Amino acid sequence: MVTMTIDGLTVQVPEGTTILEAAKTAHIRIPHLCYLKGINEIAACRVCCVEVEGERAMVTACNNPVKEGMVVHTNSPRARTTRRTNVELILSQHDCKCATCVRSGNCQLQAIANDLGILSLPYESQLPRGLRGAWTTTFPLYHDYNKCIKCMRCIQICDKVQSLSIWDLAGTGGRTTIDVSDNRVIKDSDCALCGQCITHCPVGGLRERDDTQRAFAALADPDKITVVQVAPAVRAAWGEAFGLKREEATMGRMAAALRRLGFQYVFDTNFAADLTIMEEGSEFLHRLQAGGLTRWPMFTSCCPGWVRFLKSQYPELTHQLSSAKSPQQMFGSVAKSWFAQTLGVAPEKIFCVSIMPCVAKKAESELPTMAVDGRPDVDLVLTTRELVRILRADKLDPALLPEEEPDSPLGVHTGAGVIFGATGGVMEAALRTAAYVLTGKNPDPDAFAAVRTGPGLREAAFELAGIPVRCAVVSGLGNARKLIERLKAGKVHYDFVEVMACPGGCVGGGGQPISVEDEELYGVRGQRLYDLDRAEPIRFSHENPQVQALYRDFLGAPLSQKAEELLHTDHKA
Ligand code: HC1
Ligand code: SF4
């Protein structure tokens, strides 16, 4: 242990602890911008400078370890002046038009500048800094050079967590900026669109393409019947932006809010998650029983970030993906067929909007393979953050809204559908139904809880009616890469592998609300989904009465010709 003094308080911490972390143990907060524990500890912003007695230069707290007897001042006149100067210098290279920035009110630079009382800048503004002209506004991920503060968090997240290294430093001296690596443009890079660089950007340097105005245009179109689906993970996080407790941000309030916005039918992606289990589960049992899984597992296909990753990094393995479309796409396909037929309207009349915790879902909905007869299954995807923005635009306060039921039939779901939004959830839901199909009776719904928790790459083995099933659950693309390399080396063998691109699964998705305190919230959000599952009267996808009705009245059976046409794809686009 090391004993030292911070702002007059004696602190004892393990050797190797940084000054920043040591200060936290004494409840002393040192301001910082670029620091991300374990991921970005490079003192790029120099906002965390403190004064250390005996040192001539100021010391950055995030990457310097404590020393025995060290005496640190975090708020001495020198520390205050240095911090203020460093923030002013960053602001001089930042587009400070906060009124038109999506991160206003949720921006770490804005918060620090306000806290420090910076009301004007003593330095000349150095804008614009764009190196390659205008950034494309059609790609679902948008980088604004003039807001980027070169903290390098995006570089590190994409590199260390997602193993894709899409970002790099470009330019020199005062013209240094962050750009797509290897002189590529973003749409030609291998970006998986996981959005993790967005959720870890402290400012508005990165964001999703804004589609909110297209949503308002559709809502105002009298020729459209607007149908909205809400992804499982959205319900675990949307309330954060309104200061609601997780149990207050209910789907009932969400339904009320979406109706106030003008959506005619409020449905639930969970319905389609149950449907996915029927299709993907049947496909898995088919592959397993046919003995087609001896060397390679079947991979889940519902996460579009993962599918993009596999196609760009290991294209030779694309055929191992389940052919099932994702729940988002199955939903759209069913809305424009069965539901349109029920209403007695042409499919073109239906405008299908998705609220997703994800940026890659925007790209998924635009794939030519995600359409029937040239008609896209889903017309528009909004992230959870965009949902928050449209609710705010209409001055809707969810805390004041009543609880309303989603509409039927596509709003009916089970607990198995809810848990799709957390890592391990798709696997668990599939195993519940696979066990039923193989044994003829329902297992304990918590029989496969072993897949819920653990590291980002975990495995479990079960026996279903005497058949051994080897499973792996992965979240985070760096972990996905490790798993595939192990598979390729023949070190591991699995039958069924669930992969989610974002750490923690969709609850940690790149479209979710951003914590200005840099908290990783996927753990508590995932727990919320498991609590919702436990509270559901039905916890098996095969018992969803409206999924049963869909098969009875329209599709026939899982993997029927009609189901193949509407709900499956070859992933070739
Ligand atoms: Fe997901 Fe899925 S769980 S991919 O994370 O399979 O985005 O929530 O909607 O489609 O259901 C996301 C979440 C979501 C799909 C489902
Ligand atoms: Fe990297 Fe994901 Fe950002 Fe793309 S969206 S640059 S893959 S972190």
Automatic annotation (TrEMBL):
* Residue ranges of domain 2Fe-2S ferredoxin-type in the record: 1-78
- Domain (4Fe-4S His(Cys)3-ligated-type): residue spans on this chain: 78-117
Q: Which is a Gene Ontology cellular component entry for this protein?
A: membrane
Which GO MF terms are attached to this record? 4 iron, 4 sulfur cluster binding; ferredoxin hydrogenase activity; iron ion binding; NADH dehydrogenase (ubiquinone) activity
One GO process term, biological-process aspect: ATP synthesis coupled electron transport
**Which key words are in the record?**
4Fe-4S, Iron, Iron-sulfur, Metal-binding, Repeat
What is the required cofactor set for this protein? [4Fe-4S] cluster
One Pfam family linked to the record: Fer4_7
Does this UniProt record's set of keywords contain Calcium?
A: no
Residue stretches making up the 4Fe-4S ferredoxin-type domain: 139-169, 183-211
Name of the protein described by the UniProt record? Iron hydrogenase small subunit
Give the source species.
Flintibacter hominis
